[in-house]
Every structure is written in structure tokens, then in C-alpha cells.
Amino acid sequence: MAEISVAHPAHPPTPEKPRRRCTECGEPSGSISQGTGFPLVREKVSGNFFHVRCKPGTRDLDAVWSGLERMGG
Q1: Other Cβ atoms closer than 10 A to 40
Q2: Nearest-5° angle of CA 50, CA 51, CA 57?
Q3: 3-38 as b/e, with b when 16 or more CB fall inside 10 Å?
Q4: What is the pLDDT of residue 52?
Q5: Phi, psi for residue 42 in degrees, rounded to 5
Q6: Across-strand partners of 40?
Q7: Distance CA 39, CA 18 (A)
Q8: In the prediction, which pLDDT does 32 show?
Q9: Which pLDDT value is given to residue 49?
Q10: What pTM did the predictor assign?
Q11: What does the alpha-carbon distance between residue 42 and residue 46 come to, in Å, rounded to a whole number?
């Protein structure tokens, strides 16, 4: 009688780690180079994670970048 064997994967599948989410907008963390979104930074005071554009106190940066873009060619 023939013996039947079932192949098992060399490594068991690892569950995906839950990705952190921005406290402000709720989008998950990512990597710009991999095209998966923007990385998160931790605010020192609260310990919460934010995208740089969402971090409290950085709202004025949009106006600064806009002005710099208009100055450059």
C-alpha cells in the first residue's frame, strides 16, 4: 500500500503586524519609497503617532511650502 504524505510549508505563515495609524487622520503608516503611504512620527509630548502633515503645530508648513514652490522655477 502506498504511503501518502502532505507537504507542509517550510515556514508557517506569519500574521501581518497591525500597522500603526495616524492619530489625526486615521490612515495607516507606510513607506514613501515603497508607495504605501507616508511614515509616522511620534509626538514627544503625547506619545501619539502622526503623519508629518497631520502633526499638531505643523499646519503652517503648507503655507511655507506653497510660498517656496512659487519662488522656485
Answers
A1: 22
A2: 70
A3: eeeeeeeeeeeeeeeeeeebbeeeeebeeeeeeeeb
A4: 85
A5: -95, 130
A6: 51
A7: 14
A8: 82
A9: 94
A10: 0.56
A11: 8
User: Using CB atoms within 10 A of its CB, is residue 39 exposed (0-12), middle (13-18) or buried (19+)?
Assistant: middle
Q: Element (H or E) spanning 64, and its range?
A: helix 61-71
Do the Cβ atoms of 6 and 12 come closer than 8 Å?
no
Measuring CA to CA, how many Å separate 64 from each of 10, 12, 70?
A: 53, 49, 10
Pull the grid cell for residue 35.
508607495
One digit per residue, the tens of pLDDT, for the chain of length 73 reads 667 767 776 777 777 778 899 999 999 998 888 888 889 999 998 999 998 888 887 766 666 666 667 776 5
- Phi-psi group of 10: left, alpha or beta (phi > 0 → left; psi -120 to 50 → alpha; rest → beta): alpha
Task: Show the cell assigned to 15.
Answer: 500574521
